[in-house]
TrEMBL record:
Metal-binding as UniProt keyword: yes
Organism per entry: Nonomuraea fuscirosea
GO molecular function, one term: metal ion binding
PROSITE patterns the UniProt entry points to: IMP_1
Protein name, entry field: 3'(2'),5-bisphosphonucleoside 3'(2')-phosphohydrolase
Organism placement in taxonomy: Bacteria, Bacillati, Actinomycetota, Actinomycetes, Streptosporangiales
Length: 259
């Protein structure tokens, strides 16, 4: 693996971590969801940290599952290259079954590379959906069709104003778990937008935003400003991802409603 293969490395690591998570879920079952979540988070984090430490020893890593001290390590702020990873996004959904007893599929592994002020590579593995979205081969964004559209929201923490926003713009809300699964749903045409506010962190969006940007899909804060990564405080509490044709009306609607 050479330094030029960052896109492929992100995809390989996300895929392998995802395979491991599927095996853990198969072996452990759903009887103790808290234990399943803890094992999944830990195993995926350890795999990603060991692999990046071995394959990219000079780079920094910011992981959701790192300790507070590791996350506050100031070396990350002066580094040129920082991998921003969420070993298991949608942890809650990973441990839940659907009515037909199949495990939920709206969870993801996020691997992104931030390099000198911008997202340079990223991959989102959706192991239970059998697909991985990657900057190595950015997906072609779905064609925009005028008319009613769909906005993905958190299953458990949908922002207050989004119901009104949907009413105002003629959209339906689609609850999906995991930020990565929701942004992927925009890229695969299951929904046309994703709106979130009220709390989130850099690792929840870095990898899917890297892929969205490579695909030419709109991604910003909900006030239209840029999403910035590798900040001292990794909080990045709101986000809008949408087909480019919808961004102006979504931002205007949000401006009117979200005060
Ligand atoms: N209000 C909030 N504060 C902090 N994190 C939040 C949040 N709302 C959503 N998130 C995080 O964003 C990810 C997607 O959430 P959701 O499925 O509700 O949209 C989850 O990541 P994890 O599963 O990695 O913890 C969740 O913890
Ligand atoms: Mg997350």
């Amino acid at each position: 693996m050479t330094i030029r293969d960052d896109h492929a490395l992100a995809a390989d690591l996300a895929n392998e971590a995802g395979e491991r998570l599927l095996r853990i879920r198969e072996r452990t079952g759903y009887d103790d969801p808290a234990a399943l979540r803890a094992e999944g988070d830990r195993a995926s984090h350890v795999y990603l940290m060991e692999s990046l430490g071995r394959l990219r020893p000079s780079d920094s890593v910011l992981s959701e599952e790192a300790t507070r001290e590791e996350r506050l390590d100031p070396r990350r702020l002066s580094a040129d290259r920082v991998w921003i990873v969420d070993p298991l996004d949608g942890t809650r959904e990973f441990s839940e079954r659907l009515d037909d007893q199949a495990g939920r599929a709206d969870w993801a592994v996020h691997v992104a590379l931030w390099e000198r002020g911008r997202l340079a590579a990223g991959a989102v593995a959706l192991p239970a959906q059998g697909r991985t979205l990657t900057t190595a081969e950015p997906p072609k964004p779905p064609a925009f069709e005028k008319g009613r559209f769909r906005i993905a929201v958190s299953r458990t923490r949908p922002p207050e104003f989004v119901r009104k926003l949907a009413y105002l713009l003629g959209a339906d809300l689609v609850p999906i778990g995991s930020a990565g699964a929701k942004i992927s749903a925009v890229l695969t045409g299951e929904v046309e937008a994703y709106v979130h506010a009220g709390g989130q962190y850099e690792w929840d969006s870095a990898a899917p935003v890297a892929v969205a940007q490579a695909a030419g899909v709109h991604a910003s804060r909900i006030d239209g400003s840029e999403l910035t990564y590798n900040q001292a405080d990794p909080s990045l509490p709101d986000i809008l991802v949408s087909l480019p044709e919808l961004a102006t009306s979504l931002l205007a609607g949000i401006r009117d409603l979200h005060r």
